């Protein structure tokens, strides 16, 4: 049995089934998965039962059967110790507390009553404590805690749900919890004291499974604003943890799919639309300014469950880090870095092997869309499509933002957890550590290294150095080709499948023509692509400054669309004209005309920034990535547009341009007429979605595409994604959209690995 089959209670599950089906033999973990020897009994029924209803955290990728000579060494069925071979199997992600453990910590009759580190084979820390494979206690950060006789008895009993649960612990022998202020431990019940501080408006640092959180009362506006001030995070939304599902239902409009996702063992943060009738004073307005969604999660560890029950209300639960830096995981590190932010720490002494941020997801058109792949999902393996099994091993190192790396071999891939933005030196240091960590942990020896085309990405330079160090070829993959390949591979598009029409709506990516791409229509296979169309290029006015200051993109769009003199006349004496009059527009136009620090870009992300700026959203400067676009989406959410803004398609040499000139003409007319901003946003979203889908269908027909693939960071926009999917419905082609691989740059490495593997197979 290959797949996610170790550390999930698979062997005792097999042991129990063997008795039911009269099987003699044994079961063991080995370097490739779980090996079962069956000498007697109903083998077909036995194997069928294993595949039909495996343990909750298990995922069986393949089952291989072969005849076995001889007879069982002894009657009955036994569990054999791990066989440490040179081959490696996968590692299991951390899993949220199961119902049995939750009930146990609430039961005064149980010995783990109110114990913050209860777990079993169906839940608890896995990857966050793992130091080596195969997965056993000696290979985890739990090896420092010697089991007491009671835990040892549970651990060794195949009939117990804690059989070989490597993090097994209890108050007598396991990790302990304490509250400290200014480095001094506070006597008494740590949970009760922490809850009292939170209810009093204090900010706490809380050590969880994959790192520290910063927490405060989500209903206390003063506490939320104080946290923003201390963390220097003016507007970026905070994630929330609720005590239970009823608390979320009071504040969010929940679908059955969203409720299921919140209760999933991965326990991600789920983006949910705010309810229309949120109780007054129950949530602070400063949690997510300008947005229509909030990120919610349920308590996923006993520690969180006990704390949330004591507080009995939602808490802010945001990453414990300085702005832009990696999350703190060590007690001393937290004291140094987070000490100035917090009034106290809720600490424990179980070491964390690696940083794992909370995963972030939303449900769009009935499917999960993972925005950040981290705790609960990484490092679960991903199957590569048919035709990739014979490809050589590849190490792919992704991009600069939302970085992740990917290791592939023998038809499977491991996409790492979210590693942060590599513009920050500390995040790049963590990226380098992760590359070594994954390579060692999964015993991966690449024969090819893959990297983005951009020569100045830190990830690219790291890949170049790795290829030279290992003496293996380096494959460079264009940014948006990698996005499309990522969608193809996640959806199982065969290695030798027909070309797809790829639509990559994104921020920025280095183009082979020296311009900056970001709104692309590609005829793509895994091994190559042809650019058929793009969003009409405009200057990236001021270079990198345009990625931070939306007004620059507005000027570039209007100047390109109609000329600045005409644009000024159209704006008249409006509030927008007043805002622009305070900016150095004349100087900026000189830069654009002379192409000084103003490369051409087809970026869809910068178009969203420009439209947002036209409505006054984050006009001067973004305080976090995607701010203007997210607020623009929020404005249009829930509004049924009476019409769609028009876009044109024009010939431009050997490709076509999706031209927003008609859109700008209509938008400025609406602004002059006093049209509500929400209606303007809704018309823009529908216009872009409709134009994108129409052009995609036309191009797909021209190239006889086998499918249409959608990827790129702009497809994180639920409103746009839903509308594009609706416009493509009934087109007669499969639509390949991303689910558990992020459509943003967090999925780039997966696409790079697929491209590099396909090129090696040619």
UniProtKB/TrEMBL annotation:
InterPro entries of this UniProt entry?
Acylphosphatase-like_dom, Acylphosphatase-like_dom_sf, ATPase_NBD, Carbamoyltrans_HypF-like, Carbamoyltransferase_HypF, DHBP_synth_RibB-like_a/b_dom, HypF_C, HypF_C_2
Catalyses which reaction(s): an acyl phosphate + H2O = a carboxylate + phosphate + H(+); C-terminal L-cysteinyl-[HypE protein] + carbamoyl phosphate + ATP + H2O = C-terminal S-carboxamide-L-cysteinyl-[HypE protein] + AMP + phosphate + diphosphate + H(+)
Q: Which domain of life does this protein belong to? A: Bacteria
Q: In which pathway does it act?
A: Protein modification; [NiFe] hydrogenase maturation
* GO MF annotation terms: acylphosphatase activity; carboxyl- or carbamoyltransferase activity; double-stranded RNA binding; ligase activity; zinc ion binding
Task: Tell me the active site.
Answer: 11, 29
Q: Name one Pfam family in it.
A: Sua5_yciO_yrdC
**Could you provide one GO biological process annotation from this protein's UniProt record?**
protein maturation
Identify the enzyme class: ligase
Q: Which SUPFAM superfamilies does the protein's record reference? A: Actin-like ATPase domain (SSF53067), Acylphosphatase/BLUF domain-like (SSF54975), YrdC/RibB (SSF55821)
**Domain YrdC-like spans what residues?**
188-376
Task: Name the Enzyme Commission number(s) assigned to this protein.
Answer: 6.2.-.-
Domain (Acylphosphatase-like): give its ranges: 1-81
Listed A to Z, the keywords are: Hydrolase, Ligase, Metal-binding, Transferase, Zinc, Zinc-finger
Q: Does this UniProt record's set of keywords contain Transferase?
A: yes
Xref: NCBIfam families: hypF
- Family the entry assigns: Belongs to the carbamoyltransferase HypF family.
The record's function comment reads: Involved in the maturation of [NiFe] hydrogenases. Along with HypE, it catalyzes the synthesis of the CN ligands of the active site iron of [NiFe]-hydrogenases. HypF functions as a carbamoyl transferase using carbamoylphosphate as a substrate and transferring the carboxamido moiety in an ATP-dependent reaction to the thiolate of the C-terminal cysteine of HypE yielding a protein-S-carboxamide.
Name this protein carries in UniProt? Carbamoyltransferase HypF
Tell me which species this is from.
Rhodobium orientis
């Amino acid at each position: 049995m290959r797949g996610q089959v170790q550390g999930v209670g698979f062997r005792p599950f097999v042991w129990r089934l063997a008795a039911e089906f009269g099987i003699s033999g044994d079961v063991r973990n080995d370097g490739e998965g779980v090996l079962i020897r069956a000498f007697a009994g109903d083998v077909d029924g036995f194997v069928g039962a294993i595949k039909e209803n495996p343990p909750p955290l298990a995922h069986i990728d393949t089952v291989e059967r072969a005849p076995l000579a001889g007879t069982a060494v002894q009657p009955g069925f036994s569990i054999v110790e791990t066989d440490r071979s040179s081959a490696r199997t996968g590692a299991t992600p951390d899993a949220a507390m199961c119902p049995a453990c939750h009930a146990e910590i609430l039961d005064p009759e149980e010995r783990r009553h109110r114990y913050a580190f209860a777990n079993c084979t169906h839940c608890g820390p896995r990857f966050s404590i793992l130091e080596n494979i195969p997965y056993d206690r000696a290979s985890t950060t739990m090896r420092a805690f010697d089991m007491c006789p009671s835990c040892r008895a549970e651990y060794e009993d195949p009939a117990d749900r804690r059989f070989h649960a490597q993090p097994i612990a209890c108050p007598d022998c396991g990790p302990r919890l304490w509250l400290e202020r200014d480095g001094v431990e506070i006597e008494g019940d740590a949970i009760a004291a922490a809850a009292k501080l939170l209810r009093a408006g204090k900010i706490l640092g809380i050590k969880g499974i994959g790192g520290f959180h910063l927490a405060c009362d989500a209903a206390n506006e003063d506490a939320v604003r104080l946290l923003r001030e201390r963390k220097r995070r003016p507007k970026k939304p905070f994630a929330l943890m609720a005590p239970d599902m009823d608390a979320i239902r009071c504040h969010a409009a929940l679908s059955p799919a969203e409720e299921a996702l919140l209760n999933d063992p991965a326990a991600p943060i789920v983006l949910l639309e705010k309810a229309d009738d949120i109780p007054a004073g129950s949530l602070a307005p400063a949690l997510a300014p300008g947005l229509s969604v909030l990120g919610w999660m349920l308590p996923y560890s006993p520690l969180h469950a006990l704390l949330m029950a004591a507080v009995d209300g939602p808490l802010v639960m945001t990453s414990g880090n300085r702005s832009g830096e990696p999350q703190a995981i060590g007690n001393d590190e937290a004291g140094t870095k987070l000490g100035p932010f917090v009034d106290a720490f809720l600490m424990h002494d179980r070491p964390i092997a690696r940083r794992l941020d909370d995963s972030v997801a939303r449900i769009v058109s009935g499917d999960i869309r993972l925005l950040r792949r981290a705790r609960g999902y990484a490092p679960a393996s991903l199957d590569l499509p048919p035709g990739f099994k014979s490809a050589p091993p590849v190490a792919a190192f992704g991009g600069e933002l939302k970085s992740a790396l990917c290791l592939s071999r023998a038809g499977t891939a491991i996409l790492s957890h979210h590693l942060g933005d590599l513009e920050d030196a500390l995040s790049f240091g963590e990226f380098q550590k992760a590359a070594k960590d994954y390579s060692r942990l999964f015993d991966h020896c690449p024969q090819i290294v893959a990297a983005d085309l951009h020569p100045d990405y830190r990830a690219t330079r790291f890949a170049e150095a790795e290829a030279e160090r290992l003496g293996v070829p380096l494959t460079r993959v264009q940014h948006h080709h990698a996005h499309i390949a990522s969608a193809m591979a996640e959806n199982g598009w065969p290695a030798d499948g027909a070309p797809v029409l790829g639509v990559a709506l994104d921020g920025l990516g280095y183009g082979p023509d020296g311009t900056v791409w970001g709104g692309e229509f590609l005829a793509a296979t895994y091994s190559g692509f042809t650019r058929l169309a793009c969003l009409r290029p405009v200057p990236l006015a001021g270079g990198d400054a345009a990625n931070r200051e939306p007004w620059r993109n507005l000027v570039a769009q209007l100047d390109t669309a109609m000329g600045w003199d005409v644009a000024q006349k159209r704006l008249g004496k409006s509030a927008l004209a007043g805002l622009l009059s305070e900016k150095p527009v004349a100087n900026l136009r000189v830069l654009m005309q002379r192409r000084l620090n103003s490369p051409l870009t087809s970026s869809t992300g910068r178009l969203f920034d420009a439209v947002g700026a036209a409505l006054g959203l984050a006009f001067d400067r973004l305080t976090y990535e995607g701010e203007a676009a997210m607020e623009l989406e929020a404005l249009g959410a829930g509004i049924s547009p009476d019409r769609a803004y028009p876009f044109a398609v024009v010939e431009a040499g050997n490709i076509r341009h999706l031209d927003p000139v008609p859109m700008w003409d209509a938008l400025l007319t609406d602004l002059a007429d006093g049209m509500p901003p929400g209606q303007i946003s809704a018309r823009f979203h529908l216009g872009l979605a409709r134009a994108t889908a129409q052009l995609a269908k036309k191009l797909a027909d021209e190239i006889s595409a086998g499918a249409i693939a959608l990827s790129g960071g702009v497809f994180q926009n639920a409103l746009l994604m839903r509308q594009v999917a609706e416009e493509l419905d009934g087109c007669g082609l499969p639509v390949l959209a991303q689910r558990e691989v992020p459509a943003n740059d967090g999925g780039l490495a997966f696409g790079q690995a697929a491209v590099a593997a396909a090129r090696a197979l040619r």
